[in-house]
Specification:
Layout lengths: L3 H24 L11 E2 L2 E2 L4 H31 L21 E4 L6 E2 L5 E2 L16 E4 L8 H11 L14 E2 L29 E2 L29 E6 L12 H5 L6 H14 L12 E8 L2 H7 L2 E4 L3 E3 L15 E6 L8 E8 L13 E8 L1
Parallel strand pairs: 6-15, 7-8
Antiparallel strand pairs: 1-2, 3-9, 4-5, 9-13, 10-12, 10-14, 11-13, 14-15
């Protein structure tokens, strides 16, 4: 006679086998009747049609109410957001009130030959396309050089400066100079810039792309002359990044003279401009209303290799282009920085800095300056 425990296990096993046989009989699909796992005795996947209808109705109501709540939240949020004016401006937001600089051309060329050795000529064996995250300007000058991508990057950015690029751009653009600006009209000039509901705040100053052509230069920073890259005199476009309602606070000539960290070459150029434009004029001189720009090598070897530098059309960014208030067709002022005689085959670290009372240069945060590298083969 088997032990008592073994008898219990045998009975349990027999019961399980019976249940499995019954389940298999119910689960076997019959070709004739179509009954089985999917459809059996008026049930589809184990649910009656009424049960499926209730389940579908529940999820329709659930998703509908969820979409309604989401739409209400988005609608309430849009009531607090202006499509033209940021909610948080300058120091109240992440951008802050200290602008940085940008440059073109973008997309450093990392060329590699078939043997993996980096080269700077031709397109054969190019391992990857130009990257906007690269600050390297690497090209080979001459008729057979690889400066085509540099020219294309400059052309793409300057397209917005073509007349008629923005619809109805002429309604908001107007000619400005250092002594006359619609963005900051003088006393008694307000009516001149207030027509109906359009005030001087809706105006912006015209920037003519033809100004980038330096008549005194052998090779100009224009597309017809390949921005100097063909001839080994490359032009780098430098711009001041936009910050809503930000306006520069320019230095006076006395502050510039006594400035301890401003580059000597920049101070000499500003003094020359002051002597030429501001003699006999009331202070503050309108021609000092500038965000001054200076580009040079970061270290002594870079300063030696970079060679002479010219700036077109201004030695910086005129203050009458500011503030930026999202005006229709607003054009940021730009400066073409041309390297007249850079040392070929040498990596140069170049830094451009902006100078005004309310601009602080910080290499770690990249505010008030821009850094890039240049190699010309």
């Amino acid at each position: 006679m088997p032990p008592e425990g073994l008898v219990g296990e045998m009975e349990y096993t027999v019961k399980d086998k019976v249940k499995l046989e019954e389940y298999d009989e119910r689960s076997d699909t019959s070709v004739e009747t179509g009954e089985g796992f999917f459809w059996r005795s008026g049930e589809l996947f184990g649910r009656t049609p009424i049960s499926w209808l209730k389940l579908l109705l529940f999820y329709l109501l659930f998703c509908g109410i969820l979409a309604l709540l989401w739409g209400l939240c988005i609608g309430l949020m849009f009531q607090t957001v202006d499509f033209y004016i940021p909610k948080y401006i300058q120091d109240d937001g992440l951008i802050g009130a200290n602008p940085g600089l940008g440059f073109r051309p973008l997309g450093g060329l990392g060329l590699a030959g078939q043997d993996g050795v980096a080269v700077a000529g031709g397109r054969e064996g190019q391992s990857s396309g130009p990257s906007v995250y690269s600050s390297l300007i690497w090209f080979r000058h001459g008729a057979g050089g690889n400066w085509g991508d540099m020219k294309a990057s400059m052309d793409l950015f300057l397209r917005q400066y073509e007349p008629g690029y923005f619809p109805n751009q002429g309604a908001s653009l107007t000619k400005c100079d250092f002594e006359n600006t619609p963005l900051s009209p003088k006393a008694g000039q307000y009516d001149q810039y207030s027509v109906g509901s359009v005030t001087y705040k809706d105006k912006s100053c015209e920037f003519n792309k033809e100004w980038l052509s330096d008549q005194g230069s052998d090779y100009k920073c224009i597309t017809q002359e390949d921005y100097g890259y063909r001839f080994g005199k490359p032009c780098i476009l430098v711009k001041l990044n936009r910050i809503y309602d930000w306006k520069p606070d320019p230095y006076t000539i006395s502050e510039i003279t006594n400035h301890t960290s401003m580059p000597k070459r920049l101070k000499a150029d500003i003094q020359r401009i002051y002597d030429d434009k501001c003699q006999g004029k009331e202070e503050p001189c309108p021609y000092m209303n500038m965000v001054w720009l200076h580009c040079d090598g970061e270290d002594d070897p870079d300063i030696e290799n970079i060679g002479p530098v010219t700036y077109t059309p201004f030695r910086g960014f005129p203050g009458y282009f500011f503030p930026y208030r999202n005006q229709r067709g607003y054009l940021s002022p730009i400066v073409m920085v041309q390297l007249k005689n850079p040392e070929p085959g040498v990596l140069m670290n170049i830094e451009c800095t902006a100078w005004a009372r309310n601009i602080r240069q910080n290499r770690l945060k990249r505010t008030g300056l821009v850094h890039f590298e240049l190699i010309m083969d």
